[in-house]
From TrEMBL:
Its main location: other. The chain crosses the membrane at residues 20-40. It comes from Shimia haliotis. The lineage of its organism: Bacteria, Pseudomonadati, Pseudomonadota, Alphaproteobacteria, Rhodobacterales. Keywords: Coiled coil, Membrane, Transmembrane, Transmembrane helix. Residues 220-254 form a coiled coil. GO terms for cellular component: cell envelope. This is HlyD family secretion protein.
Length: 407
């Protein structure tokens, strides 16, 4: 049986104004609650205690005292275990050998200048009178050797140029003779052949002129090459002269005060048995000096990446070091910076956070202060960090992010 469809003539229903009012009130209330919760989580602070693994650096620093290069030792004035103060003389330099070394370097500097002058003058004669050069016979002999080497270099260059000049002159002569031969041949031949001989002579003359031009170019290139080599040698000698001057000035400063002094106060923990009256080609460590104990120790914490926000720079924390007496088991500290992340043996990815321990306020324990106790410890400890004025949001957000990573 067919049913008849009917049309409702009434207008469609519209949302009631009261429903929109309730919806707006709910949204506003939710926003106010969220804002109040955020402000409350930021305003509410508490003391957060977290346990991290970490270590602190040794309380003392070791500083090597080195003997400069080319400075011979005469005596060592300290012994192992001896306490030294800042500015104390640690070793005595060999003044006699030091002055002899300075004299030798000054002679090398003078010979360097003599060789540069000879190279720039371009003289091929080594007959310069060395009697005008101040110095002993050995120095004059070395000066003569330098002048001979310089003159030999200029003679070698002159021989190369002379060979090229001779080749060019020979070609010039050959071109002139060929031209005269062509003229005589043309004079003795019939007029019908004379034109052909003239063309052949012109071709030969053109080839000889091209060869002469090539030799002229080779001469110019050789002169440029030799001048460049001379300039490079002079530049190398100038660089060597600057090094000699700096070395002489350095050794003269050691000759005026022939002592190796301690830069800081501390204790001598090692003295190497170096040979005396013998210079070394490079800096050589003579003494290991243990510097005085500072009041601030550098330490490192391993912090999970999602908790790095808790340890922002300059934040003050309280560090508890396990295994130490009560005098230093609780030490104030502050964060100095965060370095790159690394992966521990258990696979956890952490960030290394640097902190500075302040031991100035620790009470002595049995006559030892906090610095002494840390100095005598193993240097590694489980560290419990207490963060004061921690907000609720900063404590909850890392856990919230960690929970979100599972989904």
């Amino acid at each position: 049986m067919m049913t008849r469809q009917s049309v409702d003539p009434r207008a469609p229903r519209r949302p009631h104004a009261k429903g929109l009012l309730w919806l707006g009130w709910a949204v506003s209330a939710s926003g106010l609650l969220a804002l109040s919760g955020a402000l409350f989580s930021e305003a509410l602070t508490f003391t957060d205690v977290r346990r991290y693994q970490g270590y602190f650096d040794p309380a003392v620093t070791r500083q090597p005292l080195t003997v400069p290069a080319d400075v011979p030792l005469a005596a060592v004035l300290v012994r192992e275990g001896e306490d030294v103060v800042q500015g104390q003389r640690v070793a005595l330099f060999d003044s006699a050998q030091l002055k002899a070394r300075i004299t030798f370097l000054q002679e090398e500097f003078a010979l360097n200048r003599l060789e540069r002058d000879c190279l720039m003058r371009g003289s091929t004669s080594a007959d310069r009178d060395t009697s005008a050069i101040a110095g002993n016979d050995d120095f004059k002999l070395r000066a003569k050797t330098v002048l001979n080497r310089c003159a030999l270099r200029h003679k070698e260059n002159a021989l190369v140029v002379s060979e090229l000049v001779q080749g060019r002159n020979a070609l010039h002569l050959r071109a002139q003779l060929a031209h005269r031969e062509a003229l005589e041949r043309a004079r003795l031949t019939a007029p019908s052949v004379r034109r052909v001989l003239s063309l052949r002579a012109a071709i030969e003359r053109g080839e000889l002129d091209a060869a002469i031009a090539g030799l002229e170019f080779d001469l110019a290139a050789e002169a440029t090459r030799q001048a460049g080599q001379i300039q490079n040698e002079v530049a190398n000698l100038e660089a060597k002269s600057h090094q000699l001057r700096r070395k002489i000035q350095s050794l003269q400063s050691y000759a005026e005060a022939p002592y190796l002094v301690a830069p800081d106060s501390g204790k001598v923990i090692r003295v190497r048995n170096l040979p005396l009256h013998e210079a070394f080609s490079s800096e050589t460590t003579l003494v290991q000096l243990e510097a005085e104990t500072p009041e601030v120790f550098e330490a490192t914490l391993f912090v999970p990446l999602d908790e790095v926000a808790l340890v922002d720079p300059n934040r003050k924390i309280l560090v508890h070091l396990a295994g130490l007496p009560p005098a230093v088991s609780s030490v104030p500290a502050h964060v100095t910076g965060t370095t790159r992340s690394l992966v521990l043996a258990n696979g956890q990815q952490v960030a290394t956070v640097n902190i500075a321990l302040d031991l100035s306020d620790t009470e002595p324990n049995g006559g030892l202060n906090g610095a002494d106790l840390l100095q005598n410890s193993s240097g590694r400890s489980a560290i419990t960090a207490t963060f004061s004025n921690t907000t609720l949001s900063s404590a909850i957000l890392p856990a919230w992010y960690r929970l979100g990573s599972y989904f």
